[in-house]
Amino acid sequence: MSCQTLSLQPTNFLKALISKNNMNDRIYDIIDKTLAGRTLRNFPLSRLTSFRIGGSADLIAFPTTENETCAVIKILLEHGIRFMPIGAGSNLLFSDEGFRGVILSLAKFQDMEIINNNKHEIAIRAAAGVSLPKIVRKFGQFSALGISKLWGIPGQIGGSIACNAGAFNFNLSNLICEIELLDANCKKIVSKIRDLDYGYRNMKLPPNAIVTSALLKGKKGDMKEIRLELDLAKTKRRTSQPRGVASAGCIFKNPSPENPAGAIIERLGFKGTRIGSAEVSEKHANFIVNLGKAKAQEVINLIDLIRQKALDREGINLELEIRIVES
């Protein structure tokens, strides 16, 4: 129930990365000056992700506006430096060797504004770094139906849109009216949801685009129904998913509603299987948890074991829901 599609092969998102890396102190200083000191060198990626795994990135940069983001990207492109935009890191697995290049964190894109509020609906524009839990709470305050089902998903809106995050048969695409993006040339694009191709854990955005904000609209309903919806979501998530341990949410997409990945993995006997400090959760087999000092390679080895056995025993090719990022 976390999001963003991942493949062990390069995805459109990863193709946005520049293949070379020519970082030096002069370029560090240029980027740092551009962002008024909002950069950190040799930053441990384990502190940026819910998995708490990964080596260090050469640099993490924190732009606060689209103009700052484009200014930094221009510098990186001019010097052939690899980069990657991220949100909350709630579905990312970084390499143990870290990331050679620049991480563009959109966490400081925090604007949220009520655009329309009447007796039938509430419309909110949220920037990429606004957390999904904050959006769920805001819509709940205005009696919006459905979105309570997303309670407990930890991502930010930008990354959540990129994979059409959802839970309990409710997806962000049910709320999205339009998405604002920066394309590969930093040109601003506004895409209406009706013009986008999307589905289960999938939102086909323009190649290499970065989500900067979205207009979300929810229909209002009865508060008793909404409270019941929220209570059911909380109960199911608290009783069926591991809590208090580091993870990236569901590792694999569900092949179908009738045959969820967790049930497949449990049937194959993987619950509690450990490699080092990475373990298939005893509570929900589609979660791999970090017991404290797990390495990315340990998680990948578990993933490979599960995928191979699912293919051999049940003829099912499990697709990843997380994203693996190589150094």
Please tell me about this protein's structure:
With 327 residues, the protein is of the alpha+beta class. It has 3 domains: 14-105, 2-Layer Sandwich (Uridine Diphospho-n-acetylenolpyruvylglucosamine Reductase, domain 2); 112-225, 2-Layer Sandwich (Uridine Diphospho-n-acetylenolpyruvylglucosamine Reductase, domain 3); 242-325, Alpha-Beta Complex (Uridine Diphospho-n-acetylenolpyruvylglucosamine Reductase, domain 1), CATH 3.90.78. It is 25% helix and 27% strand. The protein has 7 helices and 19 strands. The protein has helices spanning 25-34, 66-78, 132-141, 157-162, 223-240, 261-267, 296-314, and strands at residues 39-44, 56-61, 83-86, 92-94, 99-105, 112-117, 121-127, 166-167, 170-171, 176-182, 188-192, 197-199, 202-204, 210-219, 246-250, 274-275, 278-280, 287-290, 323-325. A 5-stranded antiparallel β-sheet has the order 6-7-14-10-11. A 4-stranded mixed β-sheet has the order 1-2-5-3. A 4-stranded antiparallel β-sheet has the order 15-18-17-16. Strand 8 and strand 9 (170-171) form a beta hairpin. The two termini are 26 Å apart. The model is unreliable at 1-20 (pLDDT under 50).
